[in-house]
Structure formats: C-alpha cells, structure tokens
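tokens incoming
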C-alpha cells in the first residue's frame, strides 16, 4: 500500500469536497445510528465545546507548566471538579488524559510502581484480579507492562463475582478492578464489597468509571437509585472517568484519580539526564491537544451541576422509553443495568441475526457475544431516533422469527 503525496497542493475546496465524499458512506451518527462512539447532551453544549477546542487548537498540553498557564489552570480545574464529583478526600489528586485507555494504563502503571515500592521488590511482576467484563484496555495495559491478568467469570447477575475474585488473589496480587458500569452489560459491579475485600487484603482497588464517572453522580442527584461506586467507599484507591463519554466533552479527554497525592506521585515520568534537560510528563502522551483541555473546561462550565442533572434525568427517561419499547417486542433486557447501557436478548431469536438485519437498514449494530444480545449506549443523540429504531427492530426481529433470514449474523468486532 503506497501512495505519493500530490505533487501540487490541492485547493481548500477540493480537499473538503474529497473528505466529504470519503465519509459519505459512514454510519449516520447525526441521526443516532451509532450505538457508541458519539455522545451528546445538547447542540448548544456541543458547539461550546467545539468552539473552545478550536480557540485553543494550537496550544500544546505538554507546555502547560512552562508556556500555557491558562491551559494548565483549566486542566487543574477540570481535575478538581472531577475529584469533588467522585467524593475524593481532600488529599486526593488526579490527571487529565487523552482517554479511558490512557487513564487505565496509567492507573495500572501507578499501582504497579506503588506495589513495587511498598513491598520493596523492584522487579515484582504482579497480577491483577478483575471481572471478565472489564474493558480490554486492562488487557492492553497488562500486555504493555507484562502484568498477569486474572479475569474472573461474572456472577449470574452479570456483575463481578466478589467471592470468586477473592479466591483468585494470591501473594503476587497487586490490584482488584471493578467497573461502574461495565461496557458489555451496563451493570455496576458490587464496588462496596470489592472495597471491603481490598481493605481486608491490603490491595489497591481501581474502579473503572469511564462510562459512569460523569453520569452516575448526576443520575443519583436526579433521584434514581445508584449503588455506591466512588471514593466514598474507603477501599477505592483509583478511578478512571471519561470526559469524552458522558461528560459530553470533545475527544480526547478523560481523567484518572487517586485517593491520595502519595498514590498519584507514582504516576509521572521523569528523565533527568537528557541533553535538553529534565523532561517530565504525567501521562503517556507527550504533546497533547490544548483544545481537549479547553473544551472540557468549557463544557463543564456550560452545563454546570444543574445542566448535568437535567441531561441525566432526560437520558434516564430515554433509557426507560427504549427499554419499554424493546420489551414490548418480546425481548429481554439483560441484568437490570443501572445507567445508560442496554444489553437485550431473547430466548427464541438469534440477536446476532437481528443485528445483521439492523445493519442492513443503516444502524450500526452493537452486539454482545454472551448471551447473544444487541447493545446500546444511549445519550440524547438517540432521542430523535427512538421511533425509527423501535420500528426497525420490531421488523427485523419479525424477519428472524419467521426464519426468512440468511447468514450467520454479525460478528463481534470493534
Ligand atoms: C470506553 C471505555 C473505556 C476506554 O475508553 P477509551 O476512551 O475508548 O480509551 C474503558 N472502560 C470502559 C468501561 C469503557 O466503556
């Protein structure tokens, strides 16, 4: 696969025309046809985030400390607001990252270095005990750092099986993980029990709130029941929470938090003896988009507490509408999810075949392998799509029930 640069630069119009042609066949996210990847609160808030991003388009997060003091202040403000939201103690600390994956990789790196220091064992390999449903970013982190991962099957409620996780702990275990919620099922793991287990065994507990971190606190304030999942549980050591999911901030933006500055101190990287001088970064990335920091700061201020609570209430209403519509077709929502993810299945219908039919109608089908299900992660992007989605879902389920469908069903690939 080789291709030359154009010999002469293209005019601006030609460039944009071609880019639009290239994406003309994309899944129509603007009309809510993607069950993940894109998140929306309101058009107004999206525009503020975009404008802030563009205003700080050129600044580099890497230079926050030395050159771009405003950006550094915005970053500190965003982290401080996240810490309050997740009820972190006064001595807690955190970092702005480029996404959930980076938050998770850095949390496990920090945990490993903390364990090596605490145990006086500089080459300790360490293992991490986590539920099967935890995000692949944990496996990526383990591969990068040669950690052993012990993925444990879920309980029948599609949540972490705490006693099975306890049984998987040994002397080399450095961390436990729970999700709030897990991506596949949308279920919040029993974090309170994991917190007790972590305290009893003297282990680090990371809560992956990439999906729920900027949603669950507001869902709770809107009056919906949400089990405890944050730093109010004394065994929670670190958390990941994505601004670019239900924080509704421009990508790439996430946060990683630690119970104390002493834990957080194991995250930054420093090289002292470089010819250009001391080099330090808190995260994996060096150069980072200033726009993402400004965009997050702007969106948090644009929505405010009241705005997020209002959006959370509307999302939960929408989830209820989708759920009732899905159940009216005779499908079953798996595991009573607490927030905005619905995974739904049926005993008598192959949902992967239904997903294939939905794909043919222009919906990007989200699917889960076990049990064979379809999957939605809902935000206000999906509000206008509700009637069309339910009509097409009903028809596709009907086609599959009638046996009028060829093919093996969609495969599960992200
Ligand atoms: C999205 C997600 C991640 C990873 O976040 P990215 O921003 O895509 O890197 C981690 N955990 C959960 C539960 C997620 O849904």
């Amino acid at each position: 696969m080789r291709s030359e640069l154009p010999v002469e630069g293209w005019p601006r119009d030609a460039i944009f025309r071609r880019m639009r042609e290239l994406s003309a066949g994309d899944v129509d996210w603007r009309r809510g046809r993607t069950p993940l990847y894109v998140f929306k609160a309101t058009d107004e808030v999206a525009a503020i985030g975009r404008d802030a991003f563009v205003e700080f388009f050129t600044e580099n997060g890497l230079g926050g400390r030395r050159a771009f003091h405003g950006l550094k202040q915005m970053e500190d403000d965003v982290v401080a607001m996240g810490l309050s939201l997740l009820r972190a103690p006064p001595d807690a600390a955190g970092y702005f990252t480029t996404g959930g994956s980076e938050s998770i990789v850095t949390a496990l790196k920090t945990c490993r270095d903390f364990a090596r220091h605490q145990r006086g064992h500089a080459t300790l390999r360490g293992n991490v005990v986590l539920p099967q449903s935890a995000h692949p970013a944990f496996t990526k982190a383990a591969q990068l750092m040669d950690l052993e991962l012990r993925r444990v099957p879920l309980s029948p409620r599609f949540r972490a099986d705490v006693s099975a996780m306890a049984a998987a702990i040994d002397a080399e275990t450095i961390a436990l993980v729970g999700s709030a919620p897990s991506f596949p099922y949308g279920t919040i793991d029993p974090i309170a029990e994991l917190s007790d287990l972590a305290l009893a065994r003297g282990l680090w507990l990371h809560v992956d709130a990439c999906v729920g971190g900027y949603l669950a606190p507001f869902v709770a304030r809107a009056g919906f029941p949400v089990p405890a999942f944050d730093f109010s549980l004394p065994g929670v050591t670190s958390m990941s929470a994505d601004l670019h999911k239900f924080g509704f901030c421009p990508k790439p933006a996430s946060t990683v938090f630690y119970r104390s500055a002493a834990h957080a101190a194991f995250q930054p990287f420093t090289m002292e003896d470089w010819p250009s001088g001391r080099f330090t970064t808190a995260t994996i990335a060096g150069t980072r988009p200033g726009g993402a920091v400004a965009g997050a700061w702007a969106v948090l201020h644009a929505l405010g507490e009241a705005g997020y609570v209002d959006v959370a209430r509307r999302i939960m209403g929408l989830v209820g509408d989708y759920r009732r519509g899905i159940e009216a077709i005779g499908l079953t929502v798996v595991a009573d999810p607490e927030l905005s993810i619905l995974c739904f299945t049926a005993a008598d219908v192959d949902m992967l075949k239904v997903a294939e039919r939905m794909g043919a109608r222009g919906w990007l089908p989200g699917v889960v392998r076990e049990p064979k299900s379809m999957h939605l992660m809902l935000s206000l992007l999906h509000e206008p799509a509700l009637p069309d989605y339910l009509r097409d879902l009903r028809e596709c389920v009907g086609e599959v029930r009638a046996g009028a469908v060829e093919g093996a069903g969609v495969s599960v690939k992200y």
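note: The two ends are 23 Å apart (CA to CA).
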